[in-house]
Design a protein that fits this description.
single chain, Pseudouridine synthase, 2 domains, 261 residues, binds uracil, 7 helices, four-stranded antiparallel sheet, Structural Genomics Hypothetical 15.5 Kd Protein In mrcA-pckA Intergenic Region, Chain A, nine-stranded mixed sheet, elongated, alpha+beta
Length: 261
Amino acid sequence: MAQIRLDKFISERTEYTRSQIKELAAKGMIRLDGAVVKKSDTKIDSESSEVEVCGQKIGTSRYKYILLNKPQGYVCSTDEKDGETVLKLIPPEIRTKGMFPAGRLDKDSIGALLITDDGELAHKMLSPKHHIPKIYIVKLARPFENNYINKFEKGIVLADGEACLPARLQKAKNSDRLAFVELYEGKYHQVKRMFAAVGNHVELLMRVSLGSLVLPEKLAIGECMELLHKDVENLFKGQDFEVFCSRYSAVFSANLINNHL
Ligand code: URA
C-alpha cells in the first residue's frame, strides 16, 4: 500500500497547485472513494483510492496520456510565444504541469495528436528506431493519379533533394480528391511536400491513426479523451493499411467533407 497525501496525489496528476487543492477541498469539490473530503492533507492509498476533483475522476497512473482531435489554428508547442498551443484545449482537470505534444501536426492540420507528460514514452515514439506508422487522409487540390502509388512506394525525393522512406498510398473510395497515406517517419511538412513532388497540392490534412490507435469517430474536432496505458502500448503495433482504408474510408472521407469541404 503506497500512502501519499491527497494534495500531493492530485497536484502530481493535474495542473492544480496545493493551495488550489486546499480551497477546492474546503468547498467540497473533492471526493475520496465517493465521499466528500474537506482536508487536503488526508493520507490516501495512491494505488487503490478513487479520487474525484470537480466531478472528474483522477487516474492512479503517474502519467497522463491524452488523445486530442486537433483543430486548425493551434500549434504543437508548449510555448505561448508560438501561438495558441494545443495544451489550451485540454481541460484543467486532466492537464498536468509537464504535458507536451508527442509529435507534430502543422497549425493548419487536424486530427490525432497524443499529449502526455511521459517523456520516456514520447522519446520512444519519436525516435527513428521505433517510428510508428501514422495514417493521414488528405484533400488534394487536383484529382488523385494512380501513378502516385508507385512513386510513393519507391520513396519520394523532395524538392530539396531529401529522400523519403517508401510510403503507402490509396485513393479514398468516394472522392477523386481524397487519399490515405501511411508514413513511418516525420519530416517537416512531409506529406505536403511529398504531394508537391508529384505535382499536386494538399489543401487539408487530417491524421487518422497512430500505430494501431484509430481516431475514434465519436471524438469531435477540438475534443480530447484520456487513454489508458494499455492503449498507449498499442501505439507501437502497426495495422494493415489496406484493411484500414477499406474499413475507415467512408467514415473519414465523410468526416473531412462534412467538416471542411
Ligand atoms: N505532414 C505534413 O505535411 N503536415 C502535417 O501536419 C503532418 C504531416
